[in-house]
Design a protein that fits this description.
8 helices; about 50% helix; a-kinase_dom; EC 2.7.11.1; immunoglobulin domain; kinase; serine/threonine-protein kinase
Amino acid sequence: SVVIQECYVQNTAREYAKLYAAEAESLEGFGEVPEIIQIFLIHRPANNIPYATVEEELVGEFVKYSVKDGKEVNFLRRDSEAGQKCCTFQHWVYEKTNGNLLVTDLQGVGMKLTDVGIATLAKGYKGFKGNCSFSFIEQFRALHQCNEYCEMLGLKSLRTTHQKQRKATPTKSKNLPNSSTVKKMVPKKAREPRDLISSEH
């Protein structure tokens, strides 16, 4: 049953999120950690649909912090604290499982997440098979950009390993001018946190 699978996936992702929280909370300055809410399966024998799920209602703006196909146009993922910590959570799980498993479809209200998915390699991971295609793992590997929370947890950048796999060296030299233009934009980024701090007061 899809409902049972959904329940199993979300509660498995929740266990990973708890381990992530335990590690992140011990770091000074990491702050609040995203939480995947618990989903309960109920059996209703008298009903046409015998299985249903029950979970806490999330009130507020519902945001998708990661999207299955990786074509994410949502700035809240990149710029919000919750969004960045969700991307770091994905990176953390990816590294912990040696690239065999990825929590996808991270969405919710603030730091509370629900309706998540899990992608695994075809053979699964430790007897667990996800409900999302392996292509999400490939896309994550190609698109993920580390942020300060990835650095705090000491996660290895996926960029370096990704570039090593490319055989064509000419493209690398073509990319160089771009990397220097990216560096020029850094000061602009450095101003953003100050604006955020002043707006909080």
